[in-house]
Amino acid sequence: MRSKLPVTIEDIEAAARRISGCVLRTPLVGSASLSKLCGVPVCLKLEHHQTTGSFKLRGATNAVLSLSAEERARGVIAASTGNHGRALAHAAKAEGSVATICMSRLVPENKVSEIRRLGADVRITGNSQDEAQEEVERLVAENGLVMVPPFDHAAVVAGQGTLGLEIVEQMPDLTALLVPVSGGGLAAGVAAAVKARQPATRVIGLTMERGAAMQASVAAGRPVLVEEHQSLADSLGGGIGLDNHLTFRMCSELVDDIILLTEAEIAAGMRHAYTQEREVVEGAGAVGIAALLAGKIKITGGPIVVIVSGRNVDMGLHLRVMNGETDPFREEAAWHG
Ligand SMILES: *Cc1c(COP(=O)(O)O)cnc(C)c1O
């Protein structure tokens, strides 16, 4: 028998009790267009309507509420591609603490200024999340700040798992769940919750071709580094950490498959969300819709639940994608329309 996973359904239930009242219970709605396309009911979990614009508030709030008063007074710190930083800034402020947020130069300006507005101390260093993380470790050692990592942390995974609990309550007979994957905190948490309640549910991870760290790691059987490139799904950037403690193992055991998407497919997902569902969704949040549109999900029955994970996209970029641009971050030739 395999050993117990590091985050259990009991941990996730405790997190749900702890954070209720601090986070929104987001709607689960049917998608007429995707249901027609797939031939089975397809529902969207509108988690981009969460306070701060992504599910990251669940994990960050659970982590901050799990600290002692003394730890909270010292302040919290994280490296973040944006949404975790935003969530941690909000969660810290709500509990009378202060967040220091370190991020790489690849993070879009709209996310940086938003985190500053939420009262966090923002530090920009390096060209990758790994370099931003080195700055976090320096400040933890020198100033005694308490690290709340974006994904590889038990309280964060349990907090993200509360999204899975909500989904099973709202749609008890789901057959498949589509979940965006980067560091794997969301996928690990929701898979732990959903498989505890509905073991037959297939949990399918989605990420971009352009830097699929978890997929490459699961394929290799150990955490590996991948090259980072700018993508429409910027919230899915960053590695999983070579010394990953929790999410690599949980995703390896609980996530049935990880599917990769091109920039054009992600752009089509964002356009579908806007034109068919009337929702502004960032690239990372649109990968589930993108995978269904691209025909990359084998339909074995319904209902299918798609997690729409965030909406924090630069509105100028959103407009370009709505106007038909498919790869704004293409590195060679400029786009000639
Ligand atoms: C962080 C994030 C993800 C990926 O979550 P992980 O826990 O890192 O796998 C997906 N979508 C959005 C909008 C995010 O902010």
In short:
This protein is of the alpha/beta class and 337 residues long.
Textual characterization of the structure:
The chain is α/β, with parallel strands linked by helices and 337 residues long. The protein has 2 domains: 9-55 and 153-336, Rossmann fold, CATH 3.40.50.1100; 56-147, Rossmann fold (3-Layer(aba) Sandwich), CATH 3.40.50.1100. Helices cover 43% and strands 13% of the residues. The strands form 2 sheets. Strands 1-2-10-7-8-9 form a 6-stranded mixed sheet, sandwiched between helices. It has a 4-stranded parallel sheet with strand order 5-4-3-6, sandwiched between helices. Helix 1 (9-19) crosses helix 3 (56-65), helix 1 (9-19) packs across helix 8 (154-170) and helix 12 crosses helix 13 (287-293). The longest helix is centred in the middle third of the chain and has 17 residues, at 154-170. The structure holds pyridoxal-5'-phosphate (PLP). Pyridoxal-5'-phosphate is lined by residues 54, 56, 83, 150-151, 180-187, 235-236, 282, 284-285, 309-310. Belongs to the serine/threonine dehydratase family. One of its GO terms (molecular function) is L-serine ammonia-lyase activity. Residues 20-310 form the Tryptophan synthase beta chain-like PALP domain.
